[in-house]
Design brief:
The structure holds two protein chains of two kinds.
Chain A lengths: L9 H7 L10 H19 L2 H6 L10 H19 L6 H21 L4 E4 L9 E4 L2 E4 L31 E4 L27 H11 L3 H6 L2 H20 L14 E4 L2 E4 L8 E4 L2 E4 H23 L6 H8 L4 H13 L1
Antiparallel strand pairs in A: 1-4, 2-3, 5-6, 7-8
Helix pairs in contact in A: 1-9, 2-4, 2-9, 4-6, 5-6, 8-9
Chain B lengths: L9 H4 L58 H11 L4 H13 L6 E2 L6 H14 L9 H7 L1 E2 L4 E2 H5 L3 H4 L16 H18 L5 H9 L11 H17 L21 H8 L9
Antiparallel strand pairs in B: 1-2, 2-3
Helix pairs in contact in B: 2-3, 2-8, 2-11, 3-10, 4-5, 8-11, 9-10
Classes of the chains: A mainly alpha, B mainly alpha.
Chain lengths: 337, 278
């Protein structure tokens, strides 16, 4: 059957087409699609060598998607261990606990892509101690940015020991670029590692799980579509102002658009950037973020097409989703089968 | 921003006895067409793209600090091709100072960079009689310096002359070739090799002193400029986040004794130039 995503809008259908389509029921398709996605994730985040080195087959699972997830996360963990700690141990421990709590709640709500919480309800109030001084474990990301127009409320119900006055908001679907601002060449989440704790690994785990069919279906795609539209609205004019890449006629060092993506010809995508009213956006971050959105919907499409082969529990969850588009698509699948 | 300098290798460098006097490396301005010199219009050159992680075997995760992820393979390829163990991260610190990692950084194209153009003019005027002719010599003279490593254009194009004479690979290339990161990498690798082989280099910061001016490794050693270049290099390493004391990735002293020769390094980093430049 033909599975389309136009219920979310024609733009979402086009977004999914930025990455190749694939058949979830085809082992070869799965192998090549997920390898390509993980390769892109690893290239941008600097663990391509580790990814190339890890075994793809996992003795404990025959599921290829799970095996790829484990391979990707293992590679990322190796690179985190090779790098220098980015945060103090006390902060990393709090970050890990907070991410675990927020992803648990986010998954239940179908809002894993962007998780929000009253920080004062979280472990340690999302504060950590540095020399006896309580500090926020995350950046309070509520100003207007590339993922949203800013959101300051509701204020925490309890008084925060470290000065939280807004909700804690993390865009884990685009980890390590987890904030609506601070979209530099290194995602802030990539620094979330100490010598003993690696909250960054938990962050990337969310990215990986959104590529897994069961978790992908549990995510309310309307949330992803809304954040994508905001991102597209604020980046489209910046990208449109760039010249289109023409092989053989490109100038060294110049930033081009190639399709919807950016290309720094004979230069570094991590150094090149878009500068707009919402701030600086590294070209590497732009490509990565756009690809995360596209991959989410590509997996959604492939998952819907293969829905009848998925476990009954996954099908039941989809059929009772709060997302009317998903319910409608599930009905379509049922009628066609 | 910094002033890196290439002074002089003079007779030792075999470049006609002139000093590679570079003083520059304020590289933050992006490229603009070089002024002056009515010479034939240079062809557009596009070398192979930046190397990727799969193209190198050396570690790209440990002790790189904030070095852009997609430039690390180039620096590592420089190390592996030149067989100067530990050079990759040193090149990264140098590139930070010289260009802020902008491959098309150019010193000499802005109003306040007259001294850089003066340097490249002087470099060309003083050395052209002692070196093989450059097809785009006049353009090089007007170019200033540029690329990832802030190389003075005439000396960049004469890279390899001391080693292979008129078989040096860039003699027919335009100065804008320095904006191609692989070509800039070739020039920088050859230069580091010369410093290590021909000068007293006691430790890693001495490389940067020699990069600024080889004279600082001789008579200038210990002087104010020598110290300030070294200190600035140490600060740059700290800013980038590269630990120069991590002997697993950067030996206390770099060694160019395994240098495979200019042609091999050129082949490994650049490959072949378009036929019109050969």
């Amino acid at each position: 059957m033909t599975t389309d995503l136009r219920c979310y809008g024609d733009d979402i259908q086009q977004l999914a087409e930025l990455v190749p389509d694939f058949e979830l029921r085809s082992p070869m398709d799965v192998e090549s699609w997920y390898t390509r996605e993980w390769q892109a994730i690893a290239d941008t985040n600097g663990f391509a060598q580790q990814f190339a080195a890890v075994p793809r087959a996992v003795p404990t699972t025959t599921d290829r998607v799970t095996a790829m997830t484990l391979a990707g996360l293992t590679a990322f963990e190796h690179s985190l261990r090779a790098g220098r700690p980015g945060v103090p141990e006390s902060q990393a421990r709090v970050q890990s606990a907070v991410i675990q709590a927020m992803t648990g709640t986010g998954l239940e709500r179908g809002e894993l892509w962007r998780v929000t919480a009253d920080p004062t309800t979280l472990a340690t109030g999302a504060c950590y101690a540095d020399g006896g001084r309580p500090l926020r474990a995350f950046y309070p990301d509520t100003a207007p940015g590339y993922f949203g127009d800013g959101w300051s409320g509701p204020p925490p119900r309890a008084e925060s020991a470290c000065g939280w006055q807004t909700p804690l908001v993390l865009h884990l679907g685009t980890f390590p670029w987890v904030y609506s601002s601070r979209l530099g060449d290194v995602g802030p989440g990539a620094r979330w590692a100490s010598s003993a704790s690696q909250p960054a690994l938990e962050g990337l785990h969310v990215v990986a799980s959104l590529l897994e069919p069961a978790t992908n279906l549990r995510q309310d795609a309307r949330q992803v579509a809304a954040i994508y539209r905001h991102f597209a609205k604020h980046t489209a004019p910046l990208v449109a102002a760039l010249p289109s890449f023409q092989p053989g006629r490109a100038e060294a060092g110049r930033l081009y658009r190639r399709g919807r993506f950016l290309l720094a010809h004979q230069g570094s995508l991590h150094v090149a950037a878009l500068d707009g009213p919402r701030g600086r956006l590294a070209a590497s971050a732009y490509n990565y973020i756009l690809r995360r959105f596209a991959s989410f919907f590509a997996v959604r499409r492939a998952t819907l097409r293969a829905l009848t082969t998925l476990p009954a529990e996954v099908q039941r969850r989809a059929a009772t989703s709060a997302d009317p588009c998903l319910r409608q698509q599930v009905e379509g699948v049922a009628r066609a089968s | 921003m910094s002033r890196g300098v290439w002074i002089a290798l003079g007779a030792t460098a075999g470049i006609g006895g002139a000093l590679l006097f570079s003083r520059s490396a304020s590289a933050a301005s992006p490229a603009a067409p070089a002024a002056g010199a009515a010479q034939q219009t240079p062809p557009t050159i596009d070398l192979a793209p930046l190397p990727r992680a799969a193209d190198v075997s050396g570690d790209l995760a440990r002790n790189w600090g904030e070095t852009p992820v997609d430039l690390r393979p180039l620096f590592m390829l420089m190390e592996e091709t030149s067989r100067i163990v530990g050079a990759a991260r040193v090149f990264a610190v140098i590139a930070y100072r010289e260009s802020r990692f902008i491959t098309t950084a150019q010193n000499g194209n802005a109003a306040g960079e007259q001294d850089e153009r003066d340097s490249s003019r002087a470099a060309f005027a003083n050395s052209k009689g002692r070196n093989p002719p450059l097809r785009y010599g006049e353009l090089a003279a007007e170019f200033g310096s540029g690329g990832l490593f802030g190389l003075l254009a005439p000396y960049f194009l004469w890279t390899g002359v001391p080693e292979v004479g008129d078989k040096a690979p860039l003699l027919r290339a335009p100065p804008s070739l320095v904006f191609q990161p692989r070509a800039a990498a070739f020039g920088a690798a050859v230069y580091m090799q010369r410093l290590l082989k021909q000068y007293r280099v006691d430790d890693v910061p001495d490389i940067k002193a020699g990069w600024a001016n080889p004279g600082l490794l001789g008579k200038g050693r210990g002087g104010e400029t020598y110290q300030s270049v070294r200190n600035r290099f140490l600060e740059d390493a700290k800013t980038v986040g590269i630990d120069l004391a991590d002997v697993d990735t950067i030996p206390a002293k770099l060694d160019a004794s395994a240098w495979p020769g200019v042609p091999n390094v050129f082949a490994g980093l650049v490959g072949a130039l378009p036929k019109e430049l050969v």
